[in-house]
Amino acid sequence: xxxxxxxxxxxxxxxxxxxxxxxxxxxxxxxxxxxxxxxxxxxxxxxxxxxxxxxxx
Length: 57
What we know:
Elements: H1 2-21, H2 27-56
Helix pairs in contact: 1-2
């Protein structure tokens, strides 16, 4: 989970930097945004599963 958090933070910073120089519709910005969404969804899913396991096991 910690590695995933680090990856998310690095991607978030990269997205911010690229979006400062390019249009939000630029393919690089869109690609980074979609990749960040994927990692955030994975983090959310793992977080939810962890909370569920703690509650019911």
